Amino acid sequence: MTGAVIAFVTLAVWLYLLVGRGRFWLCRERDDLAGIDESRTAAPQPRIVAVIPARDEAEHIGECVGSLFRQDYCGPFSVIVVDDQSADSTAAAAAAAARAAGAGDRLEIVAGRDLPPGWTGKLWAMRQGLAAAEAREPQPDFVLFADADIAFAPQALRRLVAIQRSRGAGLTSLMVKLRCESFAERWLTPAFVFFFQMLYPFAWANDPKRRIAAAAGGCMLARRETLAAAGGLESLRDALIDDCALAAAMKKHGPIWLGLTDSARSLRAYPSLADFGRMVSRSAYAELRYSPWRLGGAVAGMALVYLAPPLLAIFARGAAEIAGALAWALMSVAFAPILRFYRRPVVGAPALPAIAATYVGFTVASAWQHWRGRGGYWKGRVQAKAADTAQIVAAESVAGKR
């Protein structure tokens, strides 16, 4: 394949991405741009229980719980924290935050039980919290699944409910604002959201006529009856990418909605490149369904789409140079809105190819961890599928005998 052909293919790809993939890059699906009535006087307000799976989260859980109890939502609302066998003071920090907010009677702490075979740690904790919510009378209308490292602005829950009502959504989710403070975060965080939007265009996920579905696990408001009709959390028990799996299951039973927000932010810090890489590597290979063929295709595709344009623009001549430069320019245009959303200078948009190369490295590292039997490693647990892990162990055993 000649340089000119590669150049025109990459240019065609970026033209498609800008105009033919749900305009994902414009960042228009946002809770503050949803065009919904946020009136607090609408009645009746649904009964909501927040479920927070927490393992060794003493550093963040207090701010998370406190922010939830400062919501201006006027309906019945309470919080369940599932202390997933933490080795620190997670439960005590959650209780202290609830008391400080004057809401100690609206917090329930569930002691997490041992992880059963076939479940990932987070989903098992979520299931225990859901069971505690369903044991109540009256049962909640909605369950808010929230991560323990998220801080919510006072209007966040009210907006979620307003969007849910306006869309009739069984699942309403916010892509929380990730930290963008350290050098690694400033370099990598906007691209993380950009790639997610490209893979799952929010407008398409929110369109009931399209099959594509996605959610963001840090903040998901699920209608309890719709969740049960979709098979409950049991149907997802071994999913590493649990949020998108939940969205796919629930979209079969009605509309879903996903958007960006400034009303919820992540407290989780990734000070170094290695810290950020571990976060991405935890599930990158799972996104490729543990397939070496998909891995090879993903690496080749990233090279073609992100690396070829600047290389052609710099080293090629003639038509290939021009097409490569145009593709690089379109790439930069597409990257600019998410940089603005994260308050990063748009002059950094042309650096996306180098950022993409870093993510390719994270993806390859994710596959390597899986092949070593360390797939999905998080909070002291290896969470790759049991069958996959058994195959890896057996393969390594055979290799060791050779």
Summarize the structure.
With 402 residues, the chain is an alpha/beta fold.
Q: Can you tell me the CATH architecture of the largest domain? A: Alpha-Beta Complex
Which parts are unreliable, with pLDDT below 50 for 5 consecutive residues or more? Answer: 386-402
Number of helices: 14
Mean pLDDT score: 90
Strand sequence of the main sheet, in spatial order?
Answer: 3-2-1-4-7-6-8-5
Characterize the main sheet: 8 strands, mixed
Number of strands: 8
Percent of residues in beta strands? 5-15%
CATH homologous superfamily heading of the largest domain: Spore Coat Polysaccharide Biosynthesis Protein SpsA, Chain A
- The backbone outline, from C-alpha atoms, is globular
- CATH class membership of the largest domain: Alpha Beta
CATH level-3 fold name of the largest domain: Spore Coat Polysaccharide Biosynthesis Protein SpsA, Chain A
Instruction: List SSEs in N-to-C order.
Output: HEHEHEHEEHEHHEHHEHHHHH
Q: Report the helical percentage.
A: 40-55%
The value of Rg in angstroms is 22 Å
Structural class: alpha/beta
Structural domains: how many: 2
- Alpha carbon gap, first and last residue: 40 Å
